[in-house]
């Protein structure tokens, strides 16, 4: 099947993403560097540009790599916008002139909601039902799911919340395995 033609941006601005092969770091590596073809999406308005701006610069914080956006050594935020690098890579003048550094700093520091409408490379990691079941049982010291269900509702929620976060198991899978109601698990998932 032929590849679809990429959408053209009226502004010349695109959100472009690549992922390291096998989700590995792409720095101090030899051999193939990237997994698959890059993805892109046109950015045709100011509101979406600012969402992308925040989303991209907050990714290292969200991933737990740094405490603030300026602390990530491979980011244009610290290196180019905050002038922390010896040599600039990005041309930032047009963005700074349009929005101002104070406004940009406020936006970058303001956390985005968990699910943002940006193109993302993060396809859901698939984890086996058996792995999820084993993790639930290990965390509660049970030998089967019936024993898990004998724990208090709060303890059950604590365990599944931890397993969902660590294994990236969704609420449907968790409901199927644990026997807990989907609606309860979906509420836990949304709060994460």
Report the portion of residues in β strands: 5-15%
Relative helix content: 40-55%
Order of helical and strand elements:
EEHHHHHHHHH
Number of domains: 2
Overall pLDDT metric: 84
Structural class: mainly alpha
Total number of beta strands: 2
> Strand order across the biggest sheet?
1-2
Q: List the uncertain runs.
A: none
- Terminal CA distance reads 38 Å
* CA gyration radius, whole angstroms: 21 Å
Task: Sketch the major β-sheet.
Answer: 2 strands, antiparallel
What general outline do the C-alpha atoms trace?
Answer: elongated
The total count of helices amounts to 9
Question: How would you sum up this structure, described in words?
Answer:
With 192 residues, the chain is mainly α. The protein folds into two domains: 96 residues, no CATH class; 63 residues. 46% of the residues lie in helices and 8% in strands. It has nine helices and two strands. A two-stranded antiparallel sheet has the order 1-2. The protein is elongated, with a radius of gyration of 21 Å. The model has no long low-confidence stretch (mean pLDDT 84).
Question: Characteristics of this structure?
Answer:
single chain; 192 residues; mainly alpha; two-stranded antiparallel ribbon
